[in-house]
Amino acid sequence: MTRTKSNKIVYLVALFLFLGGLGWLVLSGISEDSVYFLNVSEALALEPAKREQARLFGSVDAADLRADAQSLGVSFNLLDKFDHSKSIRVNYRGAVPDTFKPGAEVIVEGRFDKADGAFTANTLITKCPSKYKKKSEEAQG
Amino acid sequence: MHLTAYLGLLFALLACLFLAGFAALAAWRDQENGLVVLERGFLVPTFLVTLSSAVLTAALAAKDFSFLYIYEHVDRVLSTFYTFSAFWAGREGSLLFWSLSMMLMGAIFAFSPGYRSLAPRTRLWFWLFFLPVQAFFLLLLSCWSNPFVEVVPAPADGQGLNPLLQNPGMIFHPPLLFLGYAGFAIPACAALASAIAAEPGSWIKACRNWNLLSWIFLSAGIILGGWWSYMELGWGGYWAWDPVENASLIPWFSATAFLHTAIIESRRGALSRTNVLLMVLTFLLCVFGTYLVRSGVIESLHAFGEGGVGSPLLLFMIVSGVVAVLAVLIGEKPVYRSLSDMWSRQGLLLVTSWFFLALGLVVAMATMWPVISKLWSATTVGLGEDFYNRVCVPLLAVVVLLFSICPWLDWKVGLRERRGPLLTLAAFVLALAGFAAGGVTKPVALVAAAGSVSAMTTCVLLFVFVPAMRRTRQSWGTYAVHLAVGLMALGIAFSGPYKVEREVVLAPGQSADLSGYTLTFEKSEQEKTPAVSLVRAILHVTRDGKPVGTLTPERRLYLHFPQPFAEASIIPGLGDELYATLLGFTSETSVSLKVSVNPLVNWVWIGGTLLCLAPLLLLRRRNGGREA
Asked: Please, how many CA atoms are within 13 Å of residue B124, restricted to the half-sphere of its CB?
């Protein structure tokens, strides 16, 4: 009988330690690795001081798109998905994905440049042109 | 044909609802002779869904573009092989495939010895849970996700299959996942049934093979998905913690946790209610995965589109979750069996399953974080790849360490063998020192790598020191799986953090250096077929002047798809693997390339293959011996 009781306590203590460790891991992860997930309009609405590391969602503007042929990279205006009058200048250095083109929906990760408010991206991902998407595109018009 | 196929689904839905009502009545009145009606009756909707699926398959074979679904996913130049894979390339087709798999598996289960071994009352309740699940999927197919919509007049040609899906990995990856998802429906319903019918535990034996097979399918699906991502997407990695990938990993973690707690129940008779809940949770997480990628709730790299199935899926999960908890609470409380000492094999198995559940919880939470954080934050906050690596890698490191110790413990308490654990410890310390001397500096990666070495040592030493184990198929299967996990952990611990990658621009004749290798760009060449035109760069690789091989990355332009696609090229190796993607031309002749050296990456695939094959040894005929 006492055996079972002490067993229970051992399990409870272990569970407590485990949950404590897990909680600490998760909390430290959340505080260090949180990234703003923003649409262009949301990013613009943010106070400049609070703009930092972020992941931006938007589409590529056809105008003023400069691809650098010699060194890999591209600069473009990232348009808001719904309000095309809002945009952020994005500078990206690195391999440009195949599916990158005007109008493409892209996700960029990086940080805001404090000086001119442009966004320096270190990753540029175009959305998978999956066939699953067709319907919703048509539905949204 | 369109109408016939659609009516097939509709009548199957009605048949399932009717049978579910019948099952409810029979369960209410305890009429066990109603079982014959249910078992035979279930063949009707199974036949109807099979018929509808056959119509879709025949239409695919004939490339009948009057089917909207076929028009959207196939074109005239697509090879026969890939044309059939279009069955599960889209939302409607993949849901139909899922439903078809569940129906066929249910029909097979109803005539299997495992099912016969359950008490009649449990079987009645099984149908009462299983039939509404089927009806729900058929409802999705007949209302929000109908694969048999007709286009009038029929277009002359279709829109074609996404070139990214034209890869052998992608033919098998989705159906394997769906077979896994579908397979878990049976044990989940049987678990609930046995909780209500007060027949605890028997479902674990009856559904043992279903669980193992579903786990194999799910694992194979996930691993193939990673391989596809590595070979086809051309970004040089296999896992990006994208919501779509996480969606299949979350149920895998809970299924793996269940496989470990199920051992405790069959050996010691404890944890029976926990197991019922874990089993149901696993199936619901499969549905959750579908919800995650099909509802548009999370911004993902893959835009899957909504198509209205989001809310019904959410509702289904909530209702099923409530039903499951109620069923366990209402069901007769099983005879309480206490757990053994923590310092026993059973104790550590339980702790291991905590870790798997924690991993599932962390991944689910982080994937949903953009939604969760909206509760208190005006701007959406998400968690990036760093978060997953920071939290999951330490947890996985502890899992391999736990495994290094666990098999050396006795079921009740203490060590069962002294030399083995000492040698394992020695292997761990040696590996730690060796890797540290070899330049592995990140502490977590170091512990994980050394842990996977000690885990593999454990697998081998067990067979040396415990001769009885050599004689049972069971232990070969079990430890081969764990050896596979060790191999994969080793591969992941190195190929992730120690990958060397460069982006270079080369003119013909120029070379680039990459961690000891020299890559010389010789020339580019062109090729053209009706379906695809491509350019290929030819790179000769040498190390210390000796030739290593030739890389031939390509860029392909497919008919019906305006943008080019990169086709990666590799020089495979058990140590370093060289990997190259052709990004484009920067002038007439010079090319821009992404090249990388991926150390030990192939051990992920070797371990992964073993991981999926070894559990086949664990499958067992009914009337087999004791659970091990």
From this structure: 22
